[in-house]
């Protein structure tokens, strides 16, 4: 699914740098290619200073720091692209799946504010609206146009635009995290394979869940449990600082199988046992929310269908054994997703590739798209 808030009047060159601003780092990706054939030009993670992350920094000061980080990195990496793609998510973004009486794309474009208003829980004047037509369906003998509506609060979108423009970039594409993940999935999946997949992108503060059915996102949801939720639980239990808790999470993670737990007991590995005991309730809460998304998908589709696999991405996917936990609890094969799986990366070394899924999806976008 290709979605963007229309900034056609701002478009620059077709060369595009994708920028994913997270809570703890900024990811930048530049690709060249099209369709299913892509080559990596640049991939860079810019850590956000701990004092910016951990303290109540004035929003203006934080914005200034982010712009400075981006400017320095673009200069160091010798990035010449002037157009940029970026994405939004969270409570200020709403995605709704709506079936309108049959309507053309052109007519919907003209009447989108009126048509969308009943489905958007914000003042319609305060949001940027976009839509994507999935196709036609027939219900009770009536033809309808199945459509995805997206509304993003103007202030949130403007914040992203300001950062790009003050960095010296032209905002070409403003996407939604979930749809960027879908774009990343599409270029990496096996061709001609029809499947239903759940992408779970575990960010620092938010987990994006996207259920994709044969190439189309059917459920999009943000869950406000992320990697930091796990880390803070460890901090509280062990009276540790954030860095120490992060190291515990990655080193020990979750003890999933009986064999894992027996080995930890046998080796008297008290830290592993205690870390797992602290992390498991948080993982249970996250899985509960994902189960709700799956149940919603089944209720909307009207029949029980087989979800083939779960793809885990984001910084939170670096927690040890998390894919084993998902497989066991969801009874669906789960794996860590490599967003560069089918991209020619040459000899570029990429640390923690699963963190780049949103940026890779954004990098596949084209400033000529509508």
Write structural notes for this entry:
This protein has one domain: Nucleotidyltransferase, domain 5. 38% of the residues lie in helices and 29% in strands. It has helices at 50-54, 59-76, 105-116, 154-167, 177-188, 227-238, 242-251, 258-266, 270-301, 322-330, 357-363; strands spanning 16-21, 25-34, 37-47, 83-88, 93-101, 127-139, 142-153, 170-176, 196-202, 207-213, 216-223, 309-313, 334-336, 343-344. The strands form three sheets. A six-stranded mixed beta sheet has the order 8-4-1-2-3-14, sandwiched between helices. It has a five-stranded mixed beta sheet with strand order 11-10-9-12-13, sandwiched between helices. The longest helix has 32 residues, at 270-301. The chain is globular, with a radius of gyration of 21 Å. Residues 8-13 have low confidence and may be disordered.
Radius of gyration: 21 Å
Oligomeric status: single chain
Strand content: 25-35%
Helical stretch count? Answer: 11
* Strand segment count: 14
**CATH fold name:** Nucleotidyltransferase, domain 5
User: What is the CATH C level class, in words?
Assistant: Alpha Beta
Order of helices and strands: EEEHHEEHEEHEHEEEHHHHEHEEH
What would the principal axes of the Cα set say about the shape? globular
Profile the largest sheet: 6 strands, mixed
Cα end-to-end separation: 12 Å
Count of domain modules: 1
List low-pLDDT spans: 8-13
Calculate the mean pLDDT score and round it. 90
Secondary-structure content class: alpha/beta
CATH architecture label name: 2-Layer Sandwich
**Order of strands across the widest beta sheet?**
8-4-1-2-3-14
Helix coverage percent:
25-40%
């Amino acid at each position: 699914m290709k979605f963007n808030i229309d900034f056609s009047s701002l478009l620059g060159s077709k060369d595009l740098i994708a920028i994913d601003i997270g809570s703890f780092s900024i990811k930048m990706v530049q690709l060249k290619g099209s369709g299913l054939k892509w080559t990596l030009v640049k991939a860079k993670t810019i850590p956000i200073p701990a004092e910016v992350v951990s303290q109540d920094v004035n929003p203006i000061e934080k914005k200034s720091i982010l712009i400075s980080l981006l400017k320095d990195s673009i200069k160091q990496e010798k990035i010449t692209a002037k157009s940029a793609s970026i994405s939004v998510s969270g409570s200020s973004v709403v995605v709704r799946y709506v079936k309108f009486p049959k309507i053309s794309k052109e007519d919907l474009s003209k009447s989108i504010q009126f048509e969308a208003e009943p489905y958007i829980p914000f003042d319609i004047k305060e949001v940027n609206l976009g839509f994507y037509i999935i196709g036609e369906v027939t219900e009770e003998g009536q033809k309808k146009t199945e459509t995805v509506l997206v509304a993003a609060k103007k202030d949130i979108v403007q914040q992203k635009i300001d950062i790009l423009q003050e960095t010296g970039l032209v905002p070409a594409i403003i996407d939604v995290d979930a749809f960027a993940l879908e774009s990343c999935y599409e270029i990496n999946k096996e061709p001609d394979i029809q499947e239903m997949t759940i992408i779970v992108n575990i960010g620092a503060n938010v987990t994006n869940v996207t259920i994709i059915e044969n190439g189309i996102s059917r459920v999009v949801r943000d869950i406000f449990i992320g990697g930091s939720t796990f880390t803070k639980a460890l901090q509280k239990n062990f009276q540790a600082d954030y860095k120490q808790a992060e190291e515990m999470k990655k080193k020990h993670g979750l003890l999933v199988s009986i064999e894992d737990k027996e080995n930890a007991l046998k080796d008297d590995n008290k830290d592993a046992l205690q870390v797992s005991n602290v992390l498991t309730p948080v993982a249970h809460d996250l899985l509960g929310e994902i189960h709700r998304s799956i149940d919603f998908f089944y209720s909307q589709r009207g029949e029980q269908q087989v979800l083939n696999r779960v793809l885990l991405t984001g910084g939170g996917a670096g927690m040890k054994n998390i894919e084993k936990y998902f497989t066991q609890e969801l009874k669906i094969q789960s794996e860590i997703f490599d967003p560069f799986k089918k991209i020619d990366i040459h000899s570029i070394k990429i640390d923690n590739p699963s963190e780049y899924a949103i940026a890779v999806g954004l990098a596949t976008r084209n400033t000529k798209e509508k």
